[in-house]
Amino acid sequence: MLEIGAMDLGLLLSESEVAGEMALALISAPKIARFINRSPKQGAALRQRIARWGEQLGDEIRHKPVPPALEREYLAYQECRAMALGTLVTRLPALQLELERGSAFAGEAHALIRQLLEQPTDSRRRLLLERWRASLVGELLTLQQAIAEAEREKLRCEIEDQLLANRTLADALDPHQVSAGGLWDLAQGHWHRRSLELVKQYARLLEKEPLLREIANLLGRSQHAKEREQSPLPPQEVRELQPVQSDEVPDDLVGLHPAGDLLRMLPSEAAMLGDADLEFEFYRRYLERRLLSYQSRGTLPRHAVVLQTPRQGGEQEQRRGPFIVCIDTSGSMGGYPEECAKALFLALLGLAMEERRPCYLMLFSTEVATLEITAETGLEQAERFLSMSFHGGTDLVPCLERALTQLDVPEFRRADVLIISDFIAQNLPHALLARMDAQRRLQTRFHAVALSRHAKRALLRVFDRSWLLDCGLRGRLLRRWLH
């Protein structure tokens, strides 16, 4: 079966031009264009993603099969192109019948074949083949356009769903627009609308329980970031040279493309000027910028003005490690404590994505289940956690042992370990406490959020920092009355 790429080679076409047009059309879609203009950093990332999609689309189009009727017509064209004039003239009546079976070239071919039969000359033969080639090019471009538009529409719907998720997550997790834009990465998963409704629900809970958002913010900021917030310096304008790819710079010859540049056109195009029958075709292709030409590409330096915040004391911000979040899913955590745990996890997940910090979720009761959350692979698991119910008993020891084991993984060294539980459990063995102390010497910090006023104080003293949020009716009414 003939592929589009093989037919492109025979007709000296390039499917990359169609893919490039589709990428530009996608960037120009109203919702996508507004997002790119409103969020320059995330807009640049989205532009790169669409550009990569355009390159992949060119490869995909190249390997799509050609419809059987078009394949037969193309093979007949190649056969006739190789024939001598006398042989072609004898083949013309049969060719006319073949074209009349469904070729878009049949009407024009009828007149050209009649002229060639009346006056069999090389110029009329070339005119027939050139007009036939133009018809095949038109049909092939129509086929490529249909494939590309279907793929563009598919990606447009996907991106617009992600824009909706980004807006929902930003409104829920970053209502004051503090984030530098990491929530766009979080939005690129496959969030279902039901899950986005859960996000809104837990966002309302974060507003009702400001301590949860405060805990997430304290865990999500590095020490240098806190110092800069206390004494920030104003940003300054800096001019930078940025390389820009341009087809106007003749650095490298990268291929062939249709254009209107007479200095770079192929000699075969100029040859049409020597034939009176093809001279008009040359001028038409020149005006349509479709002369087959050498394509060159190079880099131009251009000045851009960017805002940069001066560093304080020449110190760079020390990046924090990943999160290891351990959530108690026992039956005693059901109800309001469960909702608070999920809301706090969602706030931490937003911070982890914003700071590019891996997030490792551990669910424990009497057993331990682990989920690694990333923008590429883990959002479905995060969704599943947000919609699950809690049940079972509480056992902290297996959870902490699993967390300590995870700290040995290179990617999770210096992680912040957070335990969210009601802490109605047994005391921890001395061997486990000794392992926690060893990790502290490697700059790991252990934090605890107790969601019950009945939490064991002795257990909470084991952690570097702990917070108590009474999720019982008494505690909730008291907080509401105080605020």
From TrEMBL:
This protein's superkingdom? Bacteria
For the keyword Lyase, the answer is no
Q: Which Pfam families match?
A: VWA_CoxE
Domain named VWFA: residues: 320-483
The cellular component terms of Gene Ontology attached to this UniProt record, alphabetical and capped at eight, are: cytosol
Coiled-coil ranges (or none): 133-160
InterPro entries on file:
Uncharacterised_CoxE, VWF_A, vWFA_dom_sf
Q: Which UniProt keywords apply?
A: Coiled coil
Asked if Transmembrane helix is a keyword of the record, the answer is: no
**Name under which the protein is recorded:** ATPase RavA stimulator ViaA
The scientific name of the source species is Aeromonas simiae
Report which gene this protein is encoded by. viaA
